[in-house]
UniProtKB/TrEMBL annotation, chain A:
PANTHER family: BLL4140 PROTEIN (PTHR43227:SF11). Residues 90-305 form the ABC transmembrane type-1 domain. One of its GO terms (cellular component) is plasma membrane. The chain crosses the membrane at residues 34-57, 94-115, 136-156, 176-201, 222-241. It is found in: Cell membrane. It comes from Paenibacillus rhizosphaerae. It comes from the Bacteria. This is Protein lplB.
From TrEMBL, chain B:
It comes from Paenibacillus rhizosphaerae. GO terms for cellular component: plasma membrane. GO terms for biological process: transmembrane transport. Gene3D superfamilies: MetI-like (1.10.3720.10). The keyword Cell membrane applies. Belongs to the binding-protein-dependent transport system permease family. Pfam families: BPD_transp_1 (PF00528). This is Putative aldouronate transport system permease protein.
Length: 319, 300
């Protein structure tokens, strides 16, 4: 794995290829015992559930469990794809996440540029601390703050009223749901997102700026001609990785900021799966079929995003 | 701008231009947008009902009172949540560190039969998972639903953290482990008495990663736990905040508020109380998470 570590064992490695497999296994028996706890965890909580996805092709009977229920082929999927709420949930997921991605994506870059241009080091640190803090709070805590600030009689509406402006029903109206998600997401995540771009900026060769300054380039010119082109690979990779998450992003936020008034517009795929599985009493086979669809699309998006990121010359998710 | 060939990042006193001032003001405004909601939450938690009703834009209570906090602790539900989360952390953190470090050290060893397959099986969990429905059924068949163990066990291993740790272990000098091996130490002894003492930085990082995940986690508990007295902090907070304010938007909210038994002051007090531990650890969190993120792509 690591060249330096392989050095002294080169001979052993060559011998292992021709040598007896069992001697090799016996030689490493201690290493295998180290792996056992982790493997048990993987089997119980990752691979058994994956096997449980077979339920998507079965008719679930509670008394027979996952493994004993009878096979029904693709029958569940027939119902899934005929269900209009399923199609709506898929569409809603993509709609919310694509619009959210397009609008929120530039903010961390702008903030990173702004912070980078700030000359006062200590103040910069303080700003970074303030901006990144909300990222570490759960969406439940943030929902508490958001509901308090955006509710009908909350801080923001009271301020609007004071200024003689019309109040906005942020939380309880369908057309305001997506703008509210975008607003709160920017509030929570922009600062943290900026950290990644700031790191990319700090990696830029300072000589480029020096020679630009000698040539009399203005700061704006330096930003557009040096900083932005240099962080473009990072920007591309971050964007593509976000595309990889389109099917699953935002569940915590949506689930905790939705309410009775926004029930319909908040039904993204993960919310739909939760509601049909644990709230209404649809059979588990049906929701497993939806789950399998979701996991597959997720995987395809992720792998495609990874491939594209690599083609663009970035690192991708998996190197 | 400056034509001096000095380093751009050097502190340049007395060279603030108009542009600098504008950017500084923009940053201050942005910082206020982040801070004011927090101030509002804290102020309301410290104000009397009447003071809040008179002015919802409260940022600094004139007559601070701890009534809301007193009522919150008397109610006790949030405290139960706190206690449950602490139980999860006390058992979950050592368990997750054990599972993660044993596997990370095992996989950081030199080539052995099956290493690639096992590593792939770990990596695959990052790309594909069964989703919540089969996981719920498996937990149920293991008789873990309704017990805190379900939440602890599900959260006690993460492929991402394992790979971060594995990369760190691979960077340690092999000669140290080799000499311990010559002294007759087994791999377990080497892990605990040679590798882990050298791995304090990564252990701190990973502990914080798991700690924040356990602290902020709520979905598993919502699915696996049924009894209210078992719910961790976030879920209790969710009951107090989200579920009692389904109709915040209309005038009926006043009734809903009264029914839930939690005044706005108490709600904001519970938000603040749930936030305090994150605030205390924040300087550490910021440093370690940035490091984790900047390690960037997962090297395999």
């Amino acid at each position: 794995m690591k060249p330096a570590a392989l050095g002294p064992n080169k001979n052993a490695k060559e011998r292992s290829k021709t040598g007896n497999l069992f001697t090799e296994i016996w030689k490493h028996r201690m290493t295998y015992t180290l792996l056992i706890p982790g493997i048990i965890w993987l089997i119980l909580f990752a691979y058994l559930p994956m096997g449980g996805l077979s339920l998507a092709f079965k008719h679930y009977k509670a008394n027979m469990g996952i493994w004993g229920s009878p096979w029904v082929g693709l029958e569940n999927f027939k119902y899934v794809f005929r269900d209009p709420t399923f199609a709506q949930a898929v569409w809603r997921t993509l709609y919310i996440n694509i619009i959210k991605l397009i609008i929120t994506f530039p903010f961390p870059i702008l903030l990173a540029l702004l912070l980078n241009e700030l000359r006062m080091r200590k103040t910069k640190k303080l700003f970074q601390t303030i901006f990144t803090f909300p990222q570490f709070l759960s969406w439940i805590i943030v929902s508490g703050i958001v509901i308090n600030v955006l509710s009908y009689d909350g801080l923001l509406n009271s301020a609007l009223q004071l200024l003689g402006l019309p109040t906005i029903n942020f939380l309880g109206s369908e057309p305001m749901f997506l703008p509210m998600l975008i607003l709160t997401d920017i509030w929570k995540s922009t600062g943290w997102g900026a950290i990644i771009f700031l790191a990319a900026i700090s990696g830029i060769d300072q000589d480029q700026y020096e020679s630009a300054q000698i040539d009399g380039a203005s700061r704006m010119q330096q930003i557009f001609k040096i900083t932005l082109p240099n962080i473009l690979p990072t920007v591309t990779v971050m964007f593509i990785l976000n595309v990889g998450g389109l099917m699953s992003a935002g569940f915590d936020q949506i689930f905790n900021l939705a309410n009775a008034a926004t029930q319909n517009v908040s039904q993204v795929l993960d919310v739909y799966i939760y509601r049909i599985t644990f709230q209404s009493s649809t059979d588990f086979s049906f929701s497993t079929a939806v789950s399998l669809f979701r996991s597959l699309v997720n995987m395809i998006l992720l792998l495609a995003a990874d491939r594209v990121a690599k083609l663009m010359g970035g690192d991708g998710l998996f190197r | 701008m400056s034509t001096h060939a000095e380093k751009r990042h050097k502190y340049r006193v007395g060279k603030m231009t108009l542009l600098d001032y504008i950017m500084f003001i923009v940053l201050i405004v942005l910082a206020l947008i982040i801070l004011i909601p927090f101030l509002n939450v804290i102020a309301i938690s410290l104000a009397s009902q009447k003071e809040y009703a008179d002015n919802p834009m409260l940022l600094w209570p004139k007559h601070p009172t701890l009534d809301a906090y007193r009522a919150l602790f008397e109610d006790g539900r949030l405290l139960t949540g706190f206690w449950n989360t602490i139980k999860i952390l006390v058992v979950g953190l050592p368990l997750s560190l054990f599972l993660t470090s044993t596997m990370a050290y095992g996989l950081s060893r030199n080539k052995f039969p099956g290493k690639k397959i096992i590593f792939f099986l770990v990596l695959f969990t990052m790309i594909f998972n069964g989703g919540i429905v089969p996981l719920y059924l498996v937990m149920k068949s293991l008789h873990l639903t309704g017990s805190l163990w379900s939440v602890i066990l599900v959260g006690s291993f993460s492929a991402f953290n394992m790979i971060l740790m594995m990369n760190y272990f691979q960077g340690l000098p092999e000669s140290l482990m080799e000499s311990a091996r010559l002294d007759g130490a087994g791999e377990w002894r080497i892990l605990f008495s040679v590798v882990l003492p050298l791995a304090a930085p990564i252990m701190a990082t990973i502990t914080l990663f798991y700690g924040v995940a356990f602290w902020n986690g709520w979905y598993d508990a919502m699915i696996f736990l049924r009894k209210a007295e078992m719910l961790p902090l976030q879920n209790v907070l969710r009951t107090i905040i989200v579920e009692s304010s389904t109709n915040v938007s209309n005038a009926a909210s006043v009734d809903a508020l009264n029914k839930s038994g939690f005044s706005t002051g108490m709600k904001m007090a519970s938000v603040f109380v749930s936030m305090v531990p994150i605030m205390c650890f924040f300087p550490m969190l910021q440093k370690h998470f940035a490091k984790g993120v900047l390690t960037g792509a997962i090297k395999t």
